[in-house]
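Q: Is it fine to ask for two folds in a single conversation?
A: Yes, each is treated on its own. Send the first.
Q: Here.
A: Result:
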Amino acid sequence: MDRFFATFALTYRNKVKAKSFLIFTGIVVILILAAGNINKIIDLFNNGGNKIGIVTNNDNLYKAVKSQEKQLDDDATFQKVSKNKAKKDIRNKKMDEAYVANLSDNKINGKILSRDTVSAQKEQKYQAVLSTIQTQIMASNLNLSPSELKSLQAQSNVSTQMISDQQHNKNLSEAQKTFNMIVVYAGIMLLFFIIINYANQIAMEIATEKTSRVIEMIITSVSPMTHILAKIAGVIAVALTQIAIFVIVALISYIAFDVKEMFDGFDVHPGTLTTQIIIVGIINLIVGVLSYVFLAAILGAITSRIEDINQSIMPMSLLSMIGLYVSLYSVWNPDALITKITSFIPMLSPFVMFVRSSSPNVEIWEIVLSVIISLITGVILLWIAIRSYKDSILSFDRSVKASMKRLFNRG
């Protein structure tokens, strides 16, 4: 047991001190901290609210438009200007936009002056504001009381209801859906890079030891089974350390910074579904690391030359790429048939089930079943990895076919 821990500790220390580990971890930590302070970063590059001019010769109309400034732009500063000054200031970038309003025969005509193309949403907002003011003018001319005007403007109520067994997703806003999609996209990329990184590391390390013949000296003091288990455990421990660092930094960012206020500003309120996505993502990240590290150990063990390692791990790379592309496709349609099927296929499920967890229609038992299938597959891969390592540890046959033949003909 002492030799196991000695090999484990050596592998762990070397991996944690590696520049690749420190650089990648540092980059992701910086990104997490930046995401927790995105509102402050935006403010650094924002010179303040927009400066908007109101162009009109009617004082009452100016007051009416200015009273609706919150509807037009909540952060903007409004001021009354002439049309020529508005054009000059906009051209000289002293003013962002100008709203022109002219009253003629109880009808209001509006125009938006801007350096850039005006969005349809902004145009609709201004049109709605002017329509409201025009209605008030018409009501005043017709001697309608405020209550009569209110009744005249009353609109029918239209509501939506999601028919789902999961009640907490009925009132999911568009902002919340967008936020969940961002979390899923970022999670997919993080899953892919972490899983492939550590899988390649274990395959490369085993193949390097065999190629350099270092293994001939190692097995004189450590049994092949103890050595391979310690190596795998060391790499997995490094991966778990990195995952723990990311989780801790994310929690610190959430607690220490005004993330809740930032979410409120973006009209985002993380709920049960967001929590489910994060939890399933962490679980599938761990399961994916285990599965791919065990598979990489097999591929590294049957590789006799370090020059052949890229060719040997090609099947693993293809599997991971399939999982990545299916999951990216499934972000837009997490309930598609191909998504449901691949979410239960080992090696693909860590990516795809993570995406399916963003759907309100996924059941808890489906997530649990997917994880169990992946864990069972991982145990089988570990058994094959140990067996293939013991059989090929002192074999330097350049043929992968010969290595596979020894593995399945043993005993």
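Q: Second one now.
A: Result:
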Amino acid sequence: MTGAARRAGAPVPVLDIGGTHVTAALVDPATSRTLPSSVLRRPLGSDVAADSILDAIALAALELPAGHGPIWGVAIPGPFDYDTGMGRFTGVGKFESLSGVDVGAGLRRRLGPRAERLRFLNDADAFAVGEYHAGAAAGHGRVVCLTLGTGVGSSFLRDGRPVHDGTRVPPAGHVHRLTVRDRPLEDLVSRRAIRARYARLGSLAENRPLPDVHEIAALATEGDPAASEAFRYAFETLGQALAPWIERFEATAVVIGGSMARSWDLIQPALSSGLLLSGGTTARVLPAGQPADAPLIGAAHRARERVAG
């Protein structure tokens, strides 16, 4: 086998960079699946100096076994220049020190001969592409994928490729840019929004700390009316905001991932109700098939794209 052929069949190295953790893994290009023994998750501070952030990401990457391909796929949240690898984080509360920093060059320098180049994509797009190739979005020509966590990540996929432009998708193809009742969507649908609404509706004991979303979800499951209403309101609102765009895009499915998706029994009914209240849609609401690995799989497909640079 030639060296080029060996490299073509070699595992694809990938990184999924989040606000608190970085995940590194190798993806088998033949199966679009991660190699389970290769997946490692390491803590990452998003509020430290740029060199410290890049050092931590590179340290996780260098823990991967050698023998992988030379082109890395990297999923990272925005704002980011995905073509140049330049950070544009300003006013978003994380990775501020990377604003104006050439993240690609910094990581290549740290990874040395193990990285010929890095190809970046938005983390929500990576999740969607991964779900298209190995999860619940498979077989859908047009699909909307959402990641529900601190906020609302989204990707509108047509034939497995994210759509960011045109009149059939929200601005830049991202739902979080929508407004609802003259307010930004994430004022009503986000971790902070659910906690705030629960605080207004609930009867917290004096000096009791405000519960986080997973605790509110547990209370809702136990029958707490304020907790149930906080979830219902948030995800019914999301369904109402999303419905016109699903219809315009002609999506046949909405795939849900992210940390909040663990509360599927609370989210799915409320989201479906919101979609119906806005005129209805035939799109199916589905849980992610690869909730943990989809961003890694999507990043691997980005690494293998036949593009210049």
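Q: Anything structural to flag on that second result?
A: Two points. The first helix runs from residue 3 to 8. DSSP finds nine helices and 15 strands in the chain.
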